């Protein structure tokens, strides 16, 4: 591999770090997660040897990002926290010159995603507020845009469409003014999702247009969640065959690239489509829901585990299997200490009460 070969060449360590940073960004944006992990490991090893604190922070960030997309949420959280622990406000100028953004913003942006997918609503919201404060203090437009579009996505993960719409709209206004094409496309995806969740008939179209614009930049990283959300619009419209084809395509993409953090949601959606398309035989749908639960549990995405468990429990109740439904639901509910305000937690509690009645 070229990144490994570079390590054997006689290059100034700082220049080599610069090259590896560029390579890593190329592979991440194109969702070549396995290669990006390899490059990130090499970068962090070199940074630790050179003891340049900004490079060490960058190395922890690189590992945190790739671990996140590889579906290793606990390891990702630790990497991000290791980088954040080294951050000092005076490093802002050097980081924006060398790397293009402030790491305290980008690290906290990813931590907000992790906390959301772990089912920790309160931590996610607190983190999002801190990162926006930090971003605005930097007066660095790229960091501000990064923060707002990530928070929009965080709220969409949580199903809080009004808040997602607000942050997506801020990103769109900023991106149009500054020419941030990729942020603009990402924000259109987020806005489209938020509108679709609120029943706007044009939300799905805006989501699809945002995806097209995003892929036109050469980026692939947002494909799993964006195509999962587009699948949901197909389910809502009744275009089930198109939805099924899309979820199959996205699962194949995650298997090929190693970007697996959203696989649980894809398996859950596939199960729903199998139920609608397959009629009375629920064998395949049940297998998909079992995979959704297994994948979420392995990833540490407790929120996605809970959502899959709710769907599975409802299926089991319809089959007159309340004891099995109760076991599935209780296992998911005990996976972590969910925020009590979380909509999915409220739904799970109500369903459990129904089973026990």
Concise synopsis of the structure shown:
The chain has 357 residues and is mostly helical. Helices cover 81% and strands 0% of the residues. Among the domains are: 1-86, Alpha Horseshoe (Serine Threonine Protein Phosphatase 5, Tetratricopeptide repeat); 103-217, Tetratricopeptide repeat domain (Serine Threonine Protein Phosphatase 5, Tetratricopeptide repeat).
Q: Would you kindly provide a written description of the structure presented here, covering whatever features stand out?
A:
- With 357 residues, the protein is mainly α.
- Among the domains are: 1-86, Serine Threonine Protein Phosphatase 5, Tetratricopeptide repeat (Alpha Horseshoe); 103-217, Tetratricopeptide repeat domain (Serine Threonine Protein Phosphatase 5, Tetratricopeptide repeat), CATH 1.25.40.
- Helices cover 81% and strands 0% of the residues.
- Helix 17 runs antiparallel to helix 18.
- The longest helix has 18 residues, at 33-50.
Strand portion: under 5%
Tell me the distance between the termini: 60 Å
Give the oligomer, counting copies of the same chain as homo and different chains as hetero. Answer: single chain
Order of helices and strands: HHHHHHHHHHHHHHHHHHH
Major pleated sheet: none
Name the features.
single chain; 357 residues; mainly alpha; Serine Threonine Protein Phosphatase 5, Tetratricopeptide repeat; 19 helices; 0% strand; globular
